[in-house]
Amino acid sequence: MNHLPIPLGRNTDLYEAASMPKSMKKFGVRWKKRLRISFLVIMMAAILAPIVLTWTGNIWIDEKKLAAVQQSNSYVKLDEMPDHVWKAFVAIEDHRFMQHPGVDPIGLSRAIWVDIKEGAYVQGGSTITMQLARNLFLTNDKTMTRKVKEVAIALQLEQRYSKKELLEMYLNVIYFGHGKYGIGEAVPFYFGKKATETGDRAVTLGEAAMLASLPKGPERYSPVKNWDRAKERQAVVLNRMNELAVIDQGESALAKNESISVVPTAKRAVK
Fold first, then answer.
1. How high is the pLDDT of residue 69?
2. Which residues of 127-139 are buried (b: 16+ CB within 10 A; e: fewer)?
3. Is the pTM of this model over 0.70?
4. TM segments (predicted)?
């Protein structure tokens, strides 16, 4: 007679499963089912959230303001200014600008973490595209609602424009202090020249770094109001450019020691 082999030891798993109360078995099944559902919900949210935000961005975009940006008399094209001008801004404001889709998850996560630790809005985590969205269509109120709108508009702008176009618009709408908006107004105000000039009259690396210092605090780092503070911030920008290999150590040192002439306040009304 053939017999099925019977293990000498007791199969613990089978024994425990057989001896487990029905209520416990049902609980385990329900828990696994809920876990799978939760996972699917999270995955769907991760996929759909950017799509929904991008579509929603259309609602908060003022098409007239957007169309008027490039019609300004002081508008300067990216190709009309020295490369080190826009490179200084990218280095200090958003060095992953060319890689992210309008929102930098790394920078945003870090900013949120710092804000949570400090219990206040300390870091914004805004990319160049997000800053463009805020300057064109939103206020500077530090609220979660504004941040969501900023993200949604930035995602939409990235769908419409190239990185070059976005950076160009950013440089032409950012606030530089003293009532001056855009690189086309800032360069004449601070240095008495045009952003489009070439040769000996072109914007220097030292001047570009000083201009790139201003978005963080236009009045605080204004070379008109506080030269020492402006120089300190300029050094931060130049060090960052060197760290990212945008410039080398020698270029950084020369720019820090560069003689920069700020237009005397007697020649203009300082706001």
1. 86
2. bbbbbbbbbbbbe
3. yes
4. 35-55
Residue with tokens 């400090």: 118
In a domain, 128, yes or no: no
Distance from C-alpha of 172 to C-alpha of 136, rounded to nearest angstrom = 11
Q: How many CB atoms sit inside 10 A of residue 64's CB?
A: 7
Domain extent, residue 215, equals 73-123+163-257
Question: Helices H, strands E: what count in the chain?
Answer: 12, 0
Q: What is the dihedral of CA 221, 222, 226, 231, to 10 degrees?
A: 60
Q: Is 180 inside any structural domain?
A: yes
Has residue 9 got a pLDDT over 50?
A: no
Q: Is residue 17 part of a domain?
A: no
Q: What is the CATH number of the domain that holds 83?
A: 1.10.3810.10
Are residues 150 and 134 in contact, defined by beta-carbon separation less than 8 angstroms?
yes
In a domain, residue 240? The reply is yes
* Number of domains, the chain: 1
SS3 186: helix
